[in-house]
TrEMBL record:
The keyword Chaperone does not apply. One of its GO terms (biological process) is amino acid metabolic process. CDD domains: NAD_bind_Leu_Phe_Val_DH. This is Valine dehydrogenase. Signal peptide: none annotated. It comes from Nocardioides silvaticus. Coiled coil: none annotated. Gene3D superfamilies: Leucine Dehydrogenase, chain A, domain 1, NAD(P)-binding Rossmann-like Domain. Pfam families: ELFV_dehydrog, ELFV_dehydrog_N. Belongs to the Glu/Leu/Phe/Val dehydrogenases family.
């Protein structure tokens, strides 16, 4: 089967999305896909991932899943935004240029505000400043240009808030600040978000074990936090004795094999789309592991860049991100009372808001 037919099959079987745009600019080398999943609650907002996908079909699969997750993330977090995402195909180290980013910005602008972009894997606030030279629909910009700067700061803070809520549900504690003290937390991926999460965990007395494919990322965390222990691979981390497993790299971390191996009582991390396939959430539940749904706990970055739409205030955004603690508690409680996996409970919360509050037609500026 050709790559083209595989991509078409993806679209034929994915009827949820409002709009999927293929963006190509041969002069700059841009090959991108922008996916708008839903504008039921408002314009779609989501980051731009710059990644060397093996094929257009692989990029399409990723952007469809990521944009759907953004709809649910915005809804469960209480934002008046829909879900969108973009992927640029290629190695950013080799292909990222001003010409390419500006070409991408023109495609974003052509959507007239139905999609608002931001940073993601492979893109940074400085890149968004370049994109913004061609489009008004850009967030995640540098502080020098009135933006929020690095959204990983509040992404990590939100994950930490969600982790506290999950820990309290499992272990309880009269002193919420102490519930993670002495617990062993394994963090897979210590890049932009994972590094900040490690800092929060060390601060409250957790024992932290980390791994990353980047030796530089590991060295940076070890320099900042000498007590952190390092293992060589994700497989070694999963096989370790853990209380909490925090996947903070790319998606698909919770496979059947990983769930069968984990000793952790809690899975709570920043990675998107952690469930490798439908049904994994039931395996997690059957093993007695509490899964804090990824899009619930990693919404801090979305909160941060969304705040730019009002004129950015870090304190206001941090206060909003702190509500992820209560949102996580509510999702875990709903899972218990309705007898469903936590991922199902989170979906129900998001879908209820989109159904009861959302528009009955697509959003137009």
């Amino acid at each position: 089967m050709s790559e083209h037919s595989t991509a078409v099959d993806h679209l034929e079987h994915d009827l949820e999305h409002e709009q999927v745009v293929f963006a190509n600019d041969p002069a700059s080398g841009l090959r991108a896909i922008i996916a708008i999943h839903s504008t039921a609650l408002g314009p779609s907002l989501g980051g731009t991932r710059f990644y060397p996908y093996t094929s257009t079909a692989a990029a399409l699969t990723d952007v469809l899943a990521l944009s759907r997750g953004m709809s649910y993330k915005a809804a469960v977090t209480g934002l008046d935004l829909g879900g969108g995402k973009a992927v640029i195909i290629g190695d950013p180290a080799a292909l990222k240029t001003e010409a390419l980013l500006r070409a991408y910005g023109r495609f974003v602008e052509s959507l007239a505000g139905r999609y608002i972009t931001a940073c993601d894997v492979g893109t940074y606030s400085e890149d968004m400043d370049v994109v913004a030279r061609e489009s008004a629909h850009v967030t995640g910009r540098t502080e020098a240009h009135g933006g929020a700067g690095d959204s990983s700061v509040l992404t990590a803070y939100g994950v930490f808030c969600g982790l506290r809520a999950a820990a309290e549900s499992v272990w309880g504690d009269a002193d919420p600040a102490a519930v993670l003290a002495g617990r062993t937390v394994g963090v897979a991926g210590v890049g932009k978000v994972g590094r900040h999460l490690v800092g929060h965990l060390v601060e409250v007395g957790a024992e932290v074990v980390v791994t990353d494919v980047s030796a530089a990322a590991v060295d940076r965390v070890r320099d900042e936090h000498p007590t952190v222990r390092v293992v060589e691979s994700s497989e070694a981390l999963v096989a370790s004795e853990l209380d909490v497993y925090a996947p903070c790299a790319l998606g698909g971390a919770l496979t059947d094999e990983v769930v069968a191996t984990l000793s952790a009582r809690i899975v709570c991390g920043a990675a998107n789309n952690q469930l490798a396939h439908p049904g994994v959430e039931k395996l997690v539940e059957d093993r007695g592991i509490v899964y804090a749904p990824d899009y619930v706990v990693n919404a801090g970055g979305l909160v941060q860049v969304a705040d730019e739409l009002e004129g950015f205030s870090f304190e206001r955004a941090r206060t909003r991100a702190a509500r992820i603690y209560e949102t996580t508690r509510n999702v875990l409680e709903r899972a218990r009372t309705e007898g469903v996996p936590t991922a199902t409970a989170a979906d129900r919360v998001a879908e209820q808001r989109m159904r009861e509050i959302g528009r009955r037609a697509i959003w137009l500026p």
